[in-house]
Design brief:
Length: about 240
Amino acid sequence: MDYATEERNLKEIVRRLAKTEKWPNGKLPCDYLVLDTETTGTNTSADSIVQIGFCLVRDCKISHDMWDTDYTSYTVKLREEKFIGKEGAIAVHHIDYAKSQKCGIEPADAYKMLHEVVQTAKAQGLYICGHNLYSFDIPFFQTELARLGINFKFAQNEVVDTAMLVKAMQVGILPGEGETSYAYWDRVRAYRAKGVYFNLDRHCMGRFDLAKKYGASKDDAHDAGYDCWLAHLVVGELNNIVTS
């Protein structure tokens, strides 16, 4: 599918979702907290979060209300056995047992901090945004926090998933009349299509020219905080298309 068709699809997708969800100005929300994780694998039952990233955005611009950097990430201190047989994941994010021990904070402290940051953002009316947040990061957060006895849930209208939007604009999946964004993310996630890519580094970096426009680098991707920043850039690029 050519870019012009993708962009027409995106405009209609956002128009319909903005109407249903009452997003301001008929475009993607501009006040949000971006979340991302790096993990030891893809199975929430067998694998663990090894890094959590955040990026805070207000009025479409990065805010330093919660931390004084554009994005931040925290490594989680995991037991050595959590890394056994996880060489593939380690090769991606470069966090092994030694780095986890040296730089990490205790899991209970990391997840309580995550919960506090998210609750603060939600109390301020911010959306929760992420790239593949719906099908990957949220299930990991919910699993880890459940072990601490914390019920970690999002209201259905709080989540904005940039990966699902990038996928949907390629395959032309449109929201149904009155379909909520959460139901839409689920439908897009379940759709199987060959040759459709929406990874931050392998697709979005080139599709939206993030290196030239913002100095983004594939070499820095797969740090959870940096990926939050990349997801924020994608929100901006999607909104540029919607309002063009």
